[in-house]
Amino acid sequence: MDFYDVVRKRLSVRSYKPDPVPEDVLNRILEAGRLAPSAKNFQPWKFIVVKDPAVRQALVPACKGQGSVGQAPVVICGCAIEEQVWKGMGGYWSAEAVDITIALEHMILAAAAEGLGTCWIGAFLEAEVKKVLAIPEGVKPIALTPLGCPAVEAKPRPRKPLSEIVCHERYA
Question: Which fold has domain 3-151?
């Protein structure tokens, strides 16, 4: 599949079939994340792959009731290892959210190329996610995504035209 077809095909999936994700497919998706760029190439990440149904169900309230987290056969939680993150972005802020976001987006696009669905989960209670997944101090969950075969076809949502979001030479 052409890259631009993959980008167009990627939609947020909120309902999943119980079918397991084949291990070779999961490993290709994780490899896509491993290959992602990061600030200073520090690769300050750890990805928690959750398959256990009880753990996935425990994540549902931690993710503010988003049932797809418990429904999908796999959930991936992208975490930043805070002591490994470059802290000089823009001269004043940490790259943790950017680095993990890029890696997760690589995985999300790889999943779309494999015919699987995902959904960016940024609405969660950090302390609860850390408790459920035994994430230690100094490690920060940035986002999660369920991963699996869509149960229903996702519908594209409206996107702003380029003319509203792109300017040239300077901010306008």
Answer: NADH Oxidase (3.40.109)
